[in-house]
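Case study 2.
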Amino acid sequence: MLATSSSSSSSTAISLHPLTNYNASATPSLNPSSLSFSSSYSYLSPLSFRLHSSKTHLRITPKKGLRVSCSTNEPLKVMISGAPASGKGTQCELIVQKFGLVHISTGDLLRAEVSSGTEIGNKAKEFMNSGRLVPDEIVTAMVTVRLSRQDAKEKGWLLDGYPRSFAQAQSLEELNIRPDIYIVLDVPDEILIDRCVGRRLDPVTGKIYHLKNFPPESEEIKARLVTRADDTEEKVKSRLEIYKQNAAAISSTYSSITNKIDGNRPKEMIFKDIDSLLSQLLKDKTVKSVKPVLQTESRLDQASSNQEKWRGIPTRLNNIPHSREIRNYFYDDVLQATQRAVNDGRTRLKVEINIPELNPEMDVYRIGTLMELVRVIALSFADDGKRVKVCVQGSMGEGALAGMPLQLAGTRKILEFMDWGNYGAMGTFIKIGSIGAKEVDEEDDMFILVAPQNAVGNCIIDDLRGMTDAAGKRPVILINPRLKDLPGSSGIMQTMGRDKRLEYAASFESCYFFRLLYYAGTQYPIMGAIRMTYPYDYELYKRVDEPSGKEKYVSLSTFKERPTIDEINDVFLGKPRNKDKKASGIWGFLSGVF
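Prediction:
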């Protein structure tokens, strides 16, 4: 553990109403047998061994309670883009031959749908017959239908020349259709113009020739060649300009997965580079299909259909230090919820967990426990091939007013010196950074922010907002944020822009929430707990002492939204819930907690 402990506790609790203080305390004695799960699980066990590939890492620990889950290889999903005459068609043929992907071209789709007389085809035909462009929604609908077919799901797909606009790219993003790689064939304009102007069409066979680069086989063929109407220099330049505008518009959507290939070379050399990229990507997917999971994970998976099968809250949570089993239980609980939220496309998330070792208002707070939680989350996403940036806010203010919250003092150094495994994750898939727009790099896939918080005289919100704006649609996860407004250096609350700051702080969606309940002004005994794990409801539990001397947590009620103090007290006192009653009091009364 990278932390120190103490046996005493102190906090600033407000006494206005029973069961109102969402804080925790520490008392001695631990009964490991009361834990509700069967085996320990160490994320960085000395027994663990690792498999390594250039983009995906596995940690498999041969300990009781683990099993290996294997799945079939996930197929490749590829997009390829290139200007007219860039050689894109040739490379598509070679890719399909080598990898067996389903080649999907919007031009081919339009012709097939129109000739088949489908509903989408008939709509597209109306626009084509009148000389108008087919609307994005029709083209996107055709692409979506084609991608949903079984052959594309099983073999993978190669999307050729689509999307061509920012609107089309965003439509695919909203439908959660995203490639593994976006290949761009890069060819100088003068070369592209020469290729187009020199092209000739054989009207008999439909074959394309080039006067210099690919001349016809005989004089007979040469005599019947014709120039296509759109292969004049003027029209080629116009098409190139349109392509550049479209390419620039969608570049931000796929910047993190874009690979530019020099297309001004022989086709064999170009394909060699593409082959290398796709082969490595396929290898990574194959390795990633084997992952270590807890035996209890099967019960967690079943929770989606029946929450009652959830394994329950560990007991003796006010014993300090927490046991390794208790820490790993919460690490895993947070990780499962975070993964579900990210997989569902959520991008602005927060984790709020205030067990005693993670409650900064108590002197039993352990920075090492927080760092371990961050490490578990970061390594798990790195195992999935994600490039994760772990960010800690730097010193705020200037001159004599410069400083940072005491809770975060030395945090960055701890992260840098922590054991991140011996397979090279740190520095490649995981990097340490600060909070701010300048910390966002194109290669970053997601960001984990360690306890971002305001300090007296300084506000982290502006830096945080700049970072999320720069991150775009990439996930940003706040771990135990404390974004309440604090007084300025003059001791006066800063009111200018306060509504906007509070609105921004509230824009992050909770993917995990856990807090212990006590009587106001006390930190003993634990009366119950509130837990929410994405995408489920908030659950209210009551701690019950058993005759045997053990304890358990009994579910009392669930809430769609975070319950107010009044609602919690009503449930504990057995009062009927007023579903029409507006939540009140919690934000004012617990402003120092939430």
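The longest strand covers residues 509-517.
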